[in-house]
Amino acid sequence: MKVFFHGITVLPLLILWSFICRMATGEEEEVFDFPKTLEEFKFYFNKEGQLRNVETDEPFNFVVDPDNHKYNQKRYEALGNIITDHVYKLLEDHKLRRVKIPVDPKPEEPTSFFYMSEDALEKDKLLILIHGNGVVRAGQWARRLIINDCLDSGTQLPFIEWAIKEGYGVIVANTNYNKANDKKDGQEIRYSETPEDHMECVWKNFIHKSKASAIGIVAHSYGGVVTLELAKNHIDEFWRRVFAVALTDSVHSFHHQNGDESVIHFYTERAKNWASSLDELDTPIETYSDYCPTVAAGTDKHEYTSYSSRFSIFKFLSEKYREMTEPGGEKAESSEKESSVKKEAEETAMSQDISASQIDVEMNSQNPDESQKEEL
User: Fold this and answer.
1) Which is nearest to 319 in space by CA: 294, 341, 296, 298?
2) Cβ–Cβ contacts within 10 Å for residue 257, how many?
3) Region at 343 (left for phi over 0; alpha for psi -120 to 50; beta for the rest)
């Protein structure tokens, strides 16, 4: 409840006063000591990529102490940090290597990093993956899907595996790693002060210098904002080299980000946004404030949009690549691979619906604060 006094909201003042009193009396915030590995947490990922308890084989339960929400929340966050390291290892298992930035660090200067396949800069075609904002890091679309559903739905691994199979070099951005040692109170990292700065650094120092003549981008949520900034800063190069931009529930804004006519034209020709919606997958959605063609992602769950639309995105990327590289490519018939992708999408549509409903139940029974703000 907010209390007003002469037009001033008193609640923030009360919170501040409580903090001052706590400091004055020497009362410190409670510190919890949580395990540092999945094994110590007594969790593991089964063959289906689902997080399970080692002893009971039960899924993760947010509420372990009904009378201490703060403990439950801190425990969830501690597990989330372990998940981040686990996904980093999975990227490395897929032969992606960690690359530090800035490229010219001074002694003792903090650095950020991203991931890319060994031959990414030598490949003729390149796929760039950009996650949303918040707690997610390289290789993740949504942390709470990794914890409550499975690795495939919450990570970028299905996209990485498809890209490698199709002959792409792969770059996985890490746009939220902005401070030393990834700590909230850490020193800002040069050229990675913001998600936009991080991606600009990766573009200028690596993507721009790569041999790729055909570049595809897949970006989720705030990753769409980052991508639009890149397009604005490098629109001529985008027209020459970027054959497609696939967005999932992007929160970009041509108005607020001041996208000019050339940028808008690029998006109308080579981009598509799969938005959360109750409509069936790929149903066109009419938008009045966005120039980017928009279709339904096949789910109304924001964090699930990348996974639910993945087969449509693969098809879109293949078609746009053919348009850019083959004469009359836009009129060419679908290849056998694309037919296979379509068939697989149809076969898994029902299982995706079931999975989404299961996520719904699990999310409603578990309500970690961080899950509400983990990514945009």
Assistant:
1) 341
2) 15
3) alpha
Tokens of 9: 């909201």
User: How far apart are the C-alpha atoms of 345 and 353, rounded to whole Å?
Assistant: 12
CA 250 to CA 85: how far, in whole Å? 26
Amino acid at 151: L
The string of DSSP letters for 251-294 reads ---TTTTT--HHHHHHHHHHEEEEE--SSPTT-B---SS--S-E
Among residues 190, 185, 129, 206, the alpha carbon closest in space to that of 161 is found at 129
Torsion angle in degrees (nearest 10) through CA of 160, 88, 83, 352: 0
The single-letter code of the amino acid at 226 is: V
pTM for this predicted structure: 0.84
Catalytic residue among 221, 277, 312, 318: 221
Contacts of 148 (CB under 8 A, 6+ apart): 51, 59, 60, 359, 362, 363, 366
Maximum CA pair distance of the chain?
75
Cα atoms in the 13 Å half-sphere on the side-chain side of 356: 22
Active site residue 365: no
CA–CA gap between residue 314 and residue 284 (Å, rounded): 18
Per-residue pLDDT tens digits of the chain, which is 376 residues long = 444 444 444 445 555 565 565 555 555 567 888 889 999 999 999 999 999 999 999 999 999 889 899 999 999 999 999 999 999 999 999 999 999 999 999 999 999 999 999 999 999 999 999 999 999 999 999 999 999 999 999 999 999 999 999 999 999 999 999 999 999 899 999 999 999 999 999 999 999 999 999 999 999 999 999 999 999 999 999 999 999 999 999 999 999 999 999 999 999 999 999 999 999 999 999 988 789 999 999 999 999 999 999 999 999 999 999 999 987 654 343 444 444 444 555 555 444 443 444 444 344 445 565 444 555 6
